[in-house]
Specification:
The mean pLDDT is about 95. The protein has helices at about 20-25, 30-45, 105-120, 135-150, 165-175, 190-195, 200-210, and strands spanning about 1-5, 10-15, 125, 160, 180-185, 195-200. It is of the alpha/beta class. Strand 1 (about 1-5) and strand 2 (about 10-15) form a beta hairpin. Helix 4 (about 135-150) crosses helix 5.
Length: about 210
Amino acid sequence: MLINTYNQKGEKIGQTRLPKEIFELPANPDLVHQIAVSQMANRRKVIAHTKTRAEARGGGRKPWRQKGTGRARHGSIRSPIWRGGGVTFGPTKERVFKKKIPKKMRRKALFMVLSAKAKEKLLISLDFLKIEKPKTKLMAEIIENLRSKIKDFKKGSVLVALPQKDENVILAARNIPNLQTIEARNLNVLDLLSFKYLLIPKEALKVIKETFMK
């Protein structure tokens, strides 16, 4: 598949051939959904936690003697039936939501999403992406240049795939709404689905092929 390649001014400078084994796969929505769900589960953080009677503070002494008081027998004021006591069957931080998916399935789903981006003209190819200073204004100008001159690149969120870590680009992009950077070697289904457009320099294409075609 051939796609147009642009410079940072939004000018078309040529075409880039995308490897068909990555960017020309037929879609399988069920597989993509399975991978997306597993990634959301793996990123989930356990927040809710209730204390059991062993974790609740206090209750080291028997509240009253076993016999002779006429009251029900109790061993601790931190029993779940007491106010302020532990919680029975409550949510705990020991819960595990992680789901394991085979590497080949994850890789195939990634290629399917990349293929869909290319087919729907949501993949924008750059000759390179470089800025001299970590200035938000410079990054915003590049995006504006591309949007104004590329017919298929209009409103919508953008994920920028970098060939390697570039502090200037990362810092310049972080304050722009609906724009996020990611290293090409870390591309995944969930992040690709979360953004409408994928902006990718030619060097990043090489990184994708070297990383995921092993």
